[in-house]
Each structure stands twice: as C-alpha cells, then as structure tokens.
Amino acid sequence: MAEPMDVTDQLEVHKAKYDNVMVERPVPVEFDLRCLAAFDPNPVDDAALKSQSVDEYIRAWSRGGAQLLINAIFGLETESTEEGFFAKLPEMVSRLPRSKPVPKDAPKTRWEKFAATKGIQKRKKSRKVFDEATGEYKPRFGYKGKDSKMDDWLIPVPDNADPYEDQFQKKREEKRQRVDKNKMQQRRNAEEAWASEKGIDHREARKMQLNKLIVDSKTSTASFGRFDKKLENEGKIKIRREKRKFESTTIPAAAEKDAQMRIAEKIGKPKTKDANINIRKAVHNVRSKKSRTA
Amino acid sequence: MRPLTEEETKVGSIGRNIAHLIDRPDEPYCFRMQKDRVYYVSEAIMKKATSVSRDQMLSLGVCFGKFTKTGKFRLHITALDYLAQFAKYKVWIKPNGEMSYLYGNHVLKAHLGRITEDTPEHQGVIIYTMGDVPLGFGVTAKSTADCRKLDPTAICVFHQTDVGEYLRDEDTLF
C-alpha cells in the first residue's frame, strides 16, 4: 500500500495558476447573459476611491466584473457547428420600459354597456353553419351568408300582404334599412365615446357641433347670412366674426403710396444673401470660360 | 371701386417694379379695384370717378388684369405697355412668326429670334417683334440653354396674351 501523498503543494500551485480567473465577491453578481451584461451590487471601497490609486482600483474592480461575466458565458451550454463553438444564450432577464403608452381600453358601445348590466355574455359561435336547402356549409352572415337569402328564386306572398307588392324589392329595402340603422348606431357610438372622453354629455356635444355648423354656414356668405332663409330659434345662435374692411376709396395718395412701397420692398427682396446670386448665370459664366480656355 | 388690400397687392404685384408705377414724378397714380378688375389710374381721374356708382362704372384708367374666383391674378393685354418697360426677361420673334403669334398660337422654336440670356423655365416673358414692338406675354416652356437643343417645331414660349386680343376680346377686355 502506497504512502498517502501530500498534494497541498500541488493544489497551491494549481490555485496560483488560476488566481486571475477566480474572482470572489461577497454578494453574488447578477447576470443578464442575453444582453451580455453583469450587474454588481457590491459596495465599492470608499477609501480607495478617494486615494491616489483610484484609477488602478477602478481598473481592477471592473476587470473582476468582466472576468465574472466571461466566466459565466463560458459556463453556458455550447453547441458546435462548422463555424465553431457557440454558447447558447438564455432568455433575457432584464425588464425594459415600453416605448409607447399602454393602450387604452376601447370605449364601450351602447350594446356592450347594456350587456354588462344584464350580465349577457358573449358566446363563441362557429363561422360556418349548415344550410339545409343547399346541403352546404355557408358563412353565418356576410357575403354569401346563410341569412342573406338574396339568391332566392321564389318568395311566397304572405296571406295578408298586398299581392302586387314586389317581395324581392321589399327584401332589398329591408336590408338597406338594417344597414343604415347599423351605420347610424356606429356613428352614435363614436360620438358618445368622443363626448365621454371629453367629459361632456353627448347630447351637449351634438348641440355644440350643430351650432358650429350653423355659424360656419351663416358666415360663409359675404352678407353674413343676412339674406339666407331663417332657421327656427335662430336668434339664439350668436354669430361673431370680423367683417372685412376696406380703405376709403379716396385715401390721400401719399399714404397709399407709402403702404404700397413698403409691400413692393418686401416682395422683391431675396430671402437670404445667397438667394441674390443668379446661380444659372454663374454656372453659365464658368462653363463658357472653361470652353474658351479648352 | 376700392383700393387694393395688402394681400391683393402682394398677389397681383408684378414684382419690385410696382414701385416705379406708384412713385411717378409727373402725377400721383394708384391702383383701384372695380368689381374683380384692377385698374391703374391717375388720382385726379380716380377722384372724378367716385361720382359714378359701382353698378354704372364700366372702366377707368388702364385695366391691369382681374382676380379670378380662386383668388389668382390674371394679367390683361392692356397692361402690356407698362410691363414692357420693366421686363426682365424678353423674347423676340422673327417676322414670319408674328402673325401666328398674334392669332393666339404658341411661339415655336422656328420663330424664335432672340431670347434673354439665362431665362429660366416657366418664367413669364414679354414678347417683342425684332423691331422691339411689344406684342404680348407668355411663359417659357424651356430655359434658354434647353431652347438651343429643341427641334424647329417644338414650343419655346407658351402663349398667354397678345395684342390680337384687342380685336378678338373687345367686349370683355377693359
């Protein structure tokens, strides 16, 4: 049996060899390896910062941090490809603030408000439904939808209906009316959303909008609507706009001359010093000189 | 009849040379607007014309042009004599092109006699006969340098007005 070997010396040598590589910090350093970043929460030595050798201290400190980061990277799982060894970076840990504000909730429509008070919940329905008449699956609504039924070739006249009434025409008109109603409701929802965002009653908002339209239309004529048809209760709407004013026809010639000379001064003036140079002429001069010497 | 507003003076102005028209040594002259037309008139006549009502007055002084409904100013041929005095860019046309131009056609390269050096493209120009008689005004289609390369049938200057309008548009001109 061999005598037990003393390996302390060998361990010392081994440790000295890797002394540079093994950096120790009292508080463990945090890494975000996806960003190749290390965050060191350890306090720096105040005395060293104020001493003469501050540069050396900072260099040594940051070298230690970089060493730790590189150690961590080398500790990662690697994969070998034709181009060489690559470390697999983990997912990002750091949280970055978003550049855009958090999107606001879309304003609730009238139906959504009503459904919320009644506790009506949205149910998922399939997009396509089976149409027994044709034996095909058709969209529930919309283009070529099941309920549109615009392709009916025959519609029975109801018992109590006028026999000369065009049922196809009636159907088209009903559809038209439904579309119009929906459009009106959409517009109303948009208006109410706008008003509630401003914190005013939507009826007040509509009133303001109409008032503005009336004032605009009244002030669009030279006579300020003096000869327009009067609206009901029009006196309540106040119209205040500046009227255009002209100089008297026979203003003294000297005064008029001064005013016009001032304008003439302004219009002909080049905006900058450079604008005064006629570039085209300058280019032409240079070119003609060149061609003469050539 | 009323004086021009500042905006109108800017739009309708013919450049800095408007100063020469207002600042005359002989007699004070002014611009007056009647309906949509701008007239250049001596102050004495303008004062006399105040006794004529707006509806009754047809014309006074020299009509320089009119404001279009879109607010642009359109020069009339009647302003030619004044414009010709201060023109910066000029075009002279050959005698064989004079009649064609006076019937309202554009100026072709073949009819181009002379042109002011370094005239830019789309520049308003006054058109003269070779004997320096002003005939009208137009807008250049090409700059002076580009005009040299054109073929003889190409258009050099777009027609705007010519003195032939005194006969053609006698009713609406003044």
TrEMBL record, chain A:
The keyword Nucleus applies. InterPro entries: Ribosom_reg. Residues 159-196 are annotated as: Disordered. Residues 167-191 have a biased composition (Basic and acidic residues). The keyword rRNA-binding does not apply. Its main location: nucleus. It is found in: Nucleus. Involved in ribosomal large subunit assembly. This is Ribosome biogenesis regulatory protein. It comes from Polyrhizophydium stewartii. The gene is RRS1.
Automatic annotation (TrEMBL), chain B:
The keyword RNA-binding applies. CDD domains: Nip7_N_euk (cd21146), PUA_Nip7-like (cd21151). It holds the Pfam family pre-PUA_NIP7. It is found in: Nucleus, Nucleolus. SMART domains: PUA (SM00359). Keywords: Nucleus, Ribosome biogenesis, RNA-binding. Residues 89-164 form the PUA domain. Its main location: nucleus. It comes from the Eukaryota. PROSITE patterns: PUA. Interacts with pre-ribosome complex. Required for proper 27S pre-rRNA processing and 60S ribosome subunit assembly. Belongs to the NIP7 family. This is 60S ribosome subunit biogenesis protein NIP7. The lineage of its organism: Eukaryota, Fungi, Fungi incertae sedis, Chytridiomycota, Chytridiomycota incertae sedis.
